[in-house]
């Protein structure tokens, strides 16, 4: 008389349900034999019902084991209820022990349907049980006793259906919570896998860019080295300020390539490694302003003392002065850019002064950030002052921006150097 919830395939639970169903059918046969002949129908009728129930149980078992599913739940529950009520009617009605099968039918229906209609099904079974009591009870049983038994069992069947529904819904909520947790774990795992794949692709892309950069650097080294050697040879054979400037800029380009190559090979920081050598400040300033594209009439260089020589990284200092001078020239119109260099104790002081529009107090703290470009000038990436700030920090120095009296800006570098 029982059947479990529909599942995709048979398993241990299906075998238990089949065994219970067969046991219930067998108990009905035993009940027919043990029941007082005075209160039951003839054995032929009762055993005909047992035979029908047994055949029904076998068909459900074969369907479950062969296909993994059976008839619709409502059909199974209805058939179970009808067979159980017929057994009650044929074995004494109100005094029949077959009434014990009805709670099993109600519980099985609640497990199959998982809906709140289990109480309605139990109420219908209880009403049908009341009719079975009236029809199948012995003549010695009063109508009041029959009605009382029917109402009593109806109440308990509804109570059983209600509790079964509560338990099923609670188990369903727990199952859903476990399923959601599992789905979250799967989603997180998938996210980790996707992130790992993305990181791998980014690393491959970065490696490809580095490889391309190394190829370009390799191809640039030969012509730059040749240009540097030719400039030095020409300077030695026929000293000339213009040739000196070309030599200085060629050496600066060589230093830039060396620093870029180091970054590409070691994947280090953007400023590269320090390469110190002795350098004359006047020559360095001339090369830096020429490299920034300033014509001679816009250059104003003051070095104290005039023949000062320091030991530093000329490539870095060249970049710093060149970036500051280029930035000053961009905003100064036709006004000259003034560069002042001096040794003050153990520091090299560099000031780049312009007569541009200057900066407000708020802007002074922003222009050294990456990709920040103020004003209406086009074609700037907002990296010049950031590069100067990074280089200054790497050399243990300080960069100060301040308003210039009379208008303009003063960029002051204080860098520790050796004589």
Automatic annotation (TrEMBL):
What are the recorded GO MF terms, alphabetically? kinase activity
Is the keyword Kinase in the record? yes
| Keywords (A to Z) from UniProt | ATP-binding, Kinase, Membrane, Nucleotide-binding, Transferase, Transmembrane, Transmembrane helix
Matching PROSITE patterns: HIS_KIN
A Pfam family name for this chain? HATPase_c
Q: Per its UniProt entry, which superkingdom is the organism in? A: Bacteria
Transmembrane domains' residue ranges: 15-34, 41-63, 83-108, 120-138, 150-168
Q: Which reaction does it catalyse?
A: ATP + protein L-histidine = ADP + protein N-phospho-L-histidine
Q: Where is the Histidine kinase domain?
A: 215-419
The protein's matches in InterPro entries, at most eight in alphabetical order, are given as: 2C_sensor_his_kinase, HATPase_dom, His_kinase_dom
Tell me its EC number(s), please: 2.7.13.3
Protein name per Swiss-Prot or TrEMBL: histidine kinase
Q: Which organism is it from?
A: Pseudonocardia abyssalis
